[in-house]
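Repro:
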Amino acid sequence: MLSLLALLGAVVCVVRIRRGALEPSTGAESPSAAYAFALFGALLWLLMFCGRPTWGVLFTMLGAGNVHLHRLIGGLHTFGFFLMGIGLGSVWFWCVNKRFRGRYVLATLIGVAVLFPVFRERRIYLQKNAEWSQSNLAALSSQEEHIDAAVSSLKTGSGRTYSGLAATWGNQFRVGSVPFHGILSVHHIPALSFLYHAMAQTSDLMVWFDELNPAHYRLFNVSAVVAPSTQSVPPFLHERSSTGDFRLYGAPANGYFDVVRVPYAVSVFADDVYDVNLAWLKSDWPSRLNHLLLDADGRTGAGLPRLLDTQSLPEAGGAFDLGFVSDEKRDGEIYEVAAELQQSGYLLFKMTYHPAWRAIVDGSPQSPVMLTPGFMGVALGPGRHLVRFQYQPGPLKALLIILALLIVFGAAVAERHGGLDWIDFAINRAGRSIRETLDRGRLAWMPAGFGLLALSLPVCIPLLTSRLVSGHDAFSYAPRLVEFHENIHNGVLLPRWAPDLGNGGGQPLFLFNPPLICYLAEIWYLLGCQTTTAYNLACVVIIVASAVFMRLLGQLYFGRAGGWLAAAAYIYSPYFHVDLYVRQALAEFAAFPFYPLTLYGFGRFARDRDRRFLLLGAIGLACVFLAHNAAALLFAPILSAFILYNAWSGRSLKLMLQLFGGAVLGLALSAFVWLPILMEMKDVHIDRFIEGYLNYSNHMVYVQQFFSTTWGFGLSWPGYGDGMSFSLGWPHVLMLVAAVAIWRKQQSERRGPVYLFTLLAAAYCFLMTPAALWLWERVSILQPVEFPWRMLGPVAVCVAMVVASLGNRMTRGTG
């Protein structure tokens, strides 16, 4: 009933808003604004409450990926009440304005009829709540003496208490309907049973506590167990006391501290720390006092060998001879202990890690590190040490409270002296100044810049992490960057040799692998990023640059709208994502921005005859060669056709020579990469590029695969049962067909680029199919490309340009 009332209120709001839009303004504030506020506020909160299916990746983009969206129902209810009031008020208003006797009685009856189900439901709820409360109070009162006795006994212990897990007998261990772990929580007894707020990283592991494993009691410092008299317990627990139906047992805990071994470090992230901890907890490492150092920020565990987060744990050695702890003390939330070590090790503090915890070791502060399963630890050398842990929250909250009070006080003073009017005047003046600046074109690039960032952001989001992005070649790039960095660090600015690869024998990796992606990642690596983070940020730069340069190229031929369509079609082409997120072929991926940059430079020179753009095109071509050998080889025919088209369009032999001269300049600029390859390829196993799995004939693309909607992360295989996509993208194909159909009927000079790029895309698609196998067998220069479907990269440029032509039709007359 209330939902129908809110719907009626929404209809009334729509009518009022439309009526207000049609009526002439009287100068006063329109009442329709209030209706718009109620309607659009309710709509906004409804969409937010509907959650991620409504908003898609936007929540992740805004950093709200972990927000509990069901909590937003409060906002929906608030605006829903507004709509209900509007709906009910409209019904009352209609009744009282009708001229008949009893209209007030009718309005009252309608109001009562609408609200009666609400009052009835609340009455039933409160009645049931009272009955359950009385039943629970009676049960708690009957067991009060035994509960107090058990609680008093448990409070004398120094560790945590276990009363069963919620998924096992702990859920049936109740007093009335109150679980016993709830009683422990009310009396502030540290417990391992159930967490009402499971936000800590260790909380998810609690459900894996094994009550039959003595090592788990020691690990989690469970010193007491309370259970009903009917519950059987492990034999290593000894009964301490009993009261009523409650039995209290002593458990094999040894305090909040332990001396442990930490033989390895593991880099962890928010989404895999649970997996690493669970694998460790289920191994024999806890029983042998072996722990992993969990490196969550890339700054800890520098002196330890590394394990991958997916790697199996090696055999663990015992740590019982490392040392022991004694004289453990606790004063509030300050914990002290004496540790005696025979050799270097770690002191484990069995509290959840948080950066605000501070460790004082022999009077000197030391930053704790995170050890499995999310506890804290400090490294200690041989000998006796006095260690104190204490939680020291920073001053940020207090400073923010003070700042808030100062703002409120300042606003009150400003209002009293007219300061808010001055602020309002200053804001209006700044707004006018910004508008004037935009009108003069000084900041005209800003809307386009923010638009391109917004367009690129969904593609970039998975890269905004320090975690390695999965893919076929994902693990091959990190060691390359380390070797590349060592060359740069030692003054070798054009690396050729990777001395530590090839099992320590070295290999000419950088001689035969163009270095552009390594240079891009090296910039971030020099700024202090990890190798994985450096590569991820380099890919973010490549994505944004691809959108920027493709927009320039599309706008050059098809106007502003065409530029936006080209950028979107390019960075959302399937192969763009295959290269990045399926193959992780980062060297080839680095060529994507420079395809359109090269064409833009040469195309702009053909239009304006400005030699700066010829140089820009040459630099773009050089960067393609610096990125990837096969990419450069496959792009060369497209560039040649583009040059010939521009020369033919301009009817100028001189222009053709100038453009080819720019291409030669690009080759010269990149000669330090491709020329040594040609000269020294005889000294390496270049023939392996065309043998076995890598033979081009195993990777031809079948026509149906260009239109397939199947997506996968597998490999390329002979036939059409590949585990990865070679699709052109259905939206791209439909827009390409529409563009060709539209321009076919138009007599315009702009048809030329459409036909050119359509023919190039069709030719490249043909060359990828088995029908073109004869050509691959005869043109030997193509064979080292290995994978004919690599042509999908240049095809993405051609398709994006054809799609861009639709923008010119949408905004006819733009240049």
